Amino acid sequence: MAHEQDAAHGGWDEARPTARLLLADGTLIEGDGLGAVGAAAGELCFNTAMTGYEEILTDPSYAGQIITFTFPHIGNVGVNDDDVETVNMAGASGVRGAVFAADVTSPSNWRATRDLDAWLKARGIVAIAGVDTRALTALIREKGMPNAVIAHAPDGRFDDAAIKAALDGFAGLEGQDLVPLVGATQRYGWDEAGWTWPGAYGARPEGVEPKRVVAVDYGLKRNILRMLTTAGCEVTVLPATATAEEVLALDPDGVFLSNGPGDPAATGAYAVPMIQGVLEKKIPTFGICLGHQMLALAVGASTKKMRQGHHGANHPVKDLTTGKVEITSMNHGFAVDRDSLPASARETHVSLFDGSNCGIELTDRPAFSVQHHPEASPGPQDSHYLFHRFVGMMDERKA
Ligand SMILES: NC(=O)CC[C@H](N)C(=O)O
């Protein structure tokens, strides 16, 4: 985003940057502001996906975070209503801010309905462009994900006290339950009508007796609902605080535990008793990301904070059962500690980047979960088979 002085300076105007990124260690990065005006604090991570910035920016699991995009050209295809991954928060987003290398140019794509700058503004997301994102990513890899403040002042006059207060007021993600910010507040039924686009998922296969699935919403992504529906499920979504009694009252064939933001250990307080109640009844259970971490906590395992986390769409994961490697979509900053897994939980998937746990299945109950995102969006479709595994588990129980 060029500002007026650019022409006079023949390019990048260093005289008055309109955005700042201030890291907790005092590192100050300046650039061109776009999106919402003001200051926002969060944990700074990097995402290496080469496509799907709109899905990433609307993934509720990013609540409390600022995303550095390593792909340099963000915004080229604009934004549209179909690629929004947020189900519950019309007009808002969980993500606090975004960091781009190149300035955002006018969109060029037949699906675009809006340009990224106006869209970021409308969603309250502060962004900075013109940043050396390679150097920033190297810094995060070396030192871990820092707390940071991102600020945008169109006139280049920043309120230093407000920036400092925002940074001081952000305690980091550890110990934070952010599910109430993004999860459903009431029960709703998922209806695929209207959520399809040419060639996409969304319609339940014909002639298939639908499986009744209760999806517990910790910050559910829309494509998970599409994938469940396409696999033959009829989905009822319940808020994260639903009790086992409330879930079981719907007589589900299966229970799905969604992705979501924040520290899993802080969310376990209410999630764990519900999951334990469902497992006791041997209801087929499938969890993704935060849902995976919740299933692990429910059987007595623990989670830990990662240094740089996994955020991208090209993460190799090995399925230990088949030996196959799947390229996956990832977005997590906490991981299940494999050494804490009880004898009743078998590790099924591992990350080939750092060997961290990426999946478990219970040996005494029909339940499994993965750390990566089989629904992708954005990302490769290698892990779609997991939705069919869930349906197969429900079929088996019925038979
Ligand atoms: N995508 C997710 O569900 C993320 C889970 C959790 N908030 C983490 O960062 O590890």
From TrEMBL:
Catalysis: reaction(s): L-glutamine + H2O = L-glutamate + NH4(+); hydrogencarbonate + L-glutamine + 2 ATP + H2O = carbamoyl phosphate + L-glutamate + 2 ADP + phosphate + 2 H(+)
List of residues binding L-glutamine: S61, G260, G262, L290, Q293, N331, G333, F334
Molecular-function GO terms, alphabetical: carbamoyl-phosphate synthase (glutamine-hydrolyzing) activity
Record region (CPSase): 1-205
Pathway recorded for this protein: Amino-acid biosynthesis; L-arginine biosynthesis; carbamoyl phosphate from bicarbonate: step 1/1; Pyrimidine metabolism; UMP biosynthesis via de novo pathway; (S)-dihydroorotate from bicarbonate: step 1/3
Keywords: Amino-acid biosynthesis, Arginine biosynthesis, ATP-binding, Glutamine amidotransferase, Ligase, Nucleotide-binding, Pyrimidine biosynthesis
Translocase among keywords: no
Any matching Pfam family: CPSase_sm_chain
Enzyme Commission number(s) of this protein: 6.3.5.5
Signal sequence annotation: none
Catalytic site: C289 (nucleophile), H373, E375
Carbamoyl-phosphate synthase small subunit N-terminal domain segment(s): 17-151
Top-level enzyme category: ligase
Keyword Transport tagged: no
Matches recorded under PROSITE patterns: GATASE_TYPE_1 (PS51273)
The protein's role, per its UniProt record: Small subunit of the glutamine-dependent carbamoyl phosphate synthetase (CPSase). CPSase catalyzes the formation of carbamoyl phosphate from the ammonia moiety of glutamine, carbonate, and phosphate donated by ATP, constituting the first step of 2 biosynthetic pathways, one leading to arginine and/or urea and the other to pyrimidine nucleotides. The small subunit (glutamine amidotransferase) binds and cleaves glutamine to supply the large subunit with the substrate ammonia.
Assembly with partners or alone: Composed of two chains; the small (or glutamine) chain promotes the hydrolysis of glutamine to ammonia, which is used by the large (or ammonia) chain to synthesize carbamoyl phosphate. Tetramer of heterodimers (alpha,beta)4.
Family: Belongs to the CarA family.
PANTHER family hit by this protein: CARBAMOYL-PHOSPHATE SYNTHASE SMALL CHAIN (PTHR43418:SF7), MULTIFUNCTIONAL TRYPTOPHAN BIOSYNTHESIS PROTEIN-RELATED (PTHR43418)
Protein name (record): Carbamoyl phosphate synthase small chain
Source organism of the structure: Methylopila henanensis
